Amino acid sequence: MDQFFDTFLNWEYIWQVFPDLLKTGLLNTLVLAVTSALIGTVLGMVLAVMGLSTKIWLRWPARVYTDIFRGLPAILTILVIGQGLGTLARDVVGTNPYPLGILALSLIAAAYIGEIFRSGIQSVDKGQLEASRALGMSYSKAMLLVIIPQGVRRVLPALVNQFIALIKDSSLVYFLGLLSEQRELFRIGQDLAANTGNLSPLVAAGFVYLVITVPLTHLVNYIDKKLRTGRKVRADEPGEGDELDLVASGKVSS
């Protein structure tokens, strides 16, 4: 038992690594995850719209992109982009692998987020689009103002889950060989563990990951519960899309 605690819960090594974990590792992990999430969300929405297009020259490229980046292991994508493009983009990023790590994570996230958005948009009743068109909206305006907002609202839990996955996948950027000040949580814990032969620094890094991801997991559950129960409305207050539903059913003239 003493050997177990000395290997995994050596407080000397844990306190030694914690300042770097909080000052450098946590910041870099959040930068990688948040930046990749923002870029991936924009690209994902583009992929979702392309995937729902009636034009085959838009729909098929989105489908192929999604299949490739969802089918490949994340570490393979990161290494191919980080090392393969690193030689081609050396004039732009120099020898710094950090931007390429963000690019790789963003491309991976876009494939998953695109599918999340697509499923959310498709879950909106088709009558909403027909009613919007009956009110004089163009197809693009109806999608932008009516369909997409409702679709995004329905998939918020899945989007938060994807952000949690990005936080964890950010540890894979370690394989690109980050500079000392660019190390994320896993790399800092791994470095001290390798130098000391003790796994306590990795346990400390895992604890910081849990501090980030566990509250987000409970946030997902809270959002999901709120979306399932809905908000209370007055009897005379129209709900989301009610006016459009009435137009679609012919009870209200457009």
UniProtKB/TrEMBL annotation:
Compartments it resides in: Cell membrane
Sections of the chain in a coiled coil: none
GO cellular component: ATP-binding cassette (ABC) transporter complex
CDD domains named among the record's database cross-references: TM_PBP2
Transmembrane listed as a keyword: yes
UniProt keyword annotations, A-Z: Amino-acid transport, Cell membrane, Membrane, Transmembrane, Transmembrane helix, Transport
Membrane topology: Multi-pass membrane protein
GO molecular function, one term: transmembrane transporter activity
Domain (ABC transmembrane type-1): residue spans on this chain: 26-220
Annotated transmembrane regions: 30-52, 64-86, 98-117, 199-223
One GO term (biological process): amino acid transport
SUPFAM superfamilies assigned: MetI-like
UniProt key word Cell membrane: yes
Family label: Belongs to the binding-protein-dependent transport system permease family. HisMQ subfamily.
Protein name: Amino acid ABC transporter permease
Lineage summary: Bacteria, Bacillati, Actinomycetota, Actinomycetes, Pseudonocardiales
